[in-house]
Amino acid sequence: MLNYQERFYRELHKSSFCLEVSYRESDIYLSCDKPLDETIVKSLLKRYYDDIASYIRSYPNFLTSLTPWKEDPFAPPIVKDMIAASKVSGIGPFSCVAGGISWYVGKEILNYCNELILENGGDLFLKINEDKKIGIYLGENFSPNFITVKIKKKESPFGVASSSSRFGHSLNFGRADLVTVVALDSLLADTFATVFSNKIKKIGDIEKVINEAKGYSSIKAVVVAFEGRIALWGEVELDV
């Protein structure tokens, strides 16, 4: 499992119930307002992980494609949504694999609770009934090495994802210490965190990325950490 130091987020949720579950290369951490059966959570994680793995066995290039994948009416629903999200962002569908799993597992878990924060590989599924504070890990180039931001409650579930050129396992072509995106779902947050992180190579790119984000109604907030600077835009506030 991912340990505390490796997670993008800190102090996710002061709730009554927390759980960590792993399956193959996927590890999720969740907190919610009601106790959950670990076997149910693991079965959900296994189902959606295996859906993606099965599709890759049939189409190996799906795993490595850096460009959007063609629509496939016969693909599992989670794969269809990965294809759709990456078509919006313009990069490969595996850019939102962690977001896809967090989104699908999270939606299912809401059948058993009212409030939930679920992390999978730097991607969050959130259904929160009040504003929350989340600590975002910035890496060792910052001191302190994390910031706390306020995220506003929403009627519907939404997603938060982070991408870094300096830590984590995702392919990254940029230089940003961290880019965090809040979006209408975890898949869009995931793929756009990668897109925007790839584009940060100099200080001037921060403003360009934020201006680009403003053009998407599905993107609600962006946080960029780069060369000692932190920029925020949208429905997120720095907690000082």
Structure write-up:
It is a single chain. The protein has helices spanning 38-58, 61-64, 77-89, 97-109, 186-199, 204-213, and strands spanning 9-10, 17-23, 26-32, 116-120, 123-127, 132-137, 146-151, 158-163, 178-183, 219-226, 229-234, 236-238. Residues 1-6 have low confidence and may be disordered. The strands form two sheets. The protein has an eight-stranded antiparallel β-sheet with strand order 2-3-4-5-8-9-10-11. The longest helix has 21 residues, at 38-58. 31% of the residues lie in helices and 28% in strands. With 240 residues, the protein is of the alpha+beta class. The chain has one domain (4-238): ApbE-like domains (T-fold, Roll), CATH 3.10.520. Strand 2 and strand 3 form a beta hairpin.
Shape: globular
Instruction: Give me the side-by-side strand order of the main sheet.
Output: 2-3-4-5-8-9-10-11
The helix-and-strand class reads alpha+beta
* Topology, number of strands: 12
CATH-defined superfamily: ApbE-like domains
Percent of residues in β-strands: 25-35%
End-to-end Cα distance, whole Å, is 31 Å
Note the run of SSEs as H and E: EEEHHHHEEEEEEHHEEE
Total domains: 1
Largest sheet: 8 strands, antiparallel
The CATH architecture designation is Roll
